[in-house]
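Q: What structure does this chain adopt?
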Amino acid sequence: FFVWFWIGGFLLPPSSLDPQSHWNRRINMVLEHDLLYPSAAEERRTHKLKRLIPTPQSYFMDVKCPGCIGISTVFSHAQTVVLCGSCSTVLCQPTGGVCRLTEGCSFRRKAD
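A:
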């Protein structure tokens, strides 16, 4: 006559109640990454609304005109064609997201 025990959602035979059994050991799980303190690279990879502190992905940048070497401030997701103030050269063209710089233009991301 065998007596079975119901433990943790499992029906176990009496021999499995041995303290050395793998059923009775406490499992210490280790997470792959820290959820409270994610790395900067991991935060950049996640969606802007799923971050620990939601931040936008857009920024302002200084764009140098290839013709007159003048510097203009441009929004990264500009929705209109941006022209140079002094020589009227096209600096960037809008796309669906980040604007496309004209060939020869260089830019620098403005500090926050």
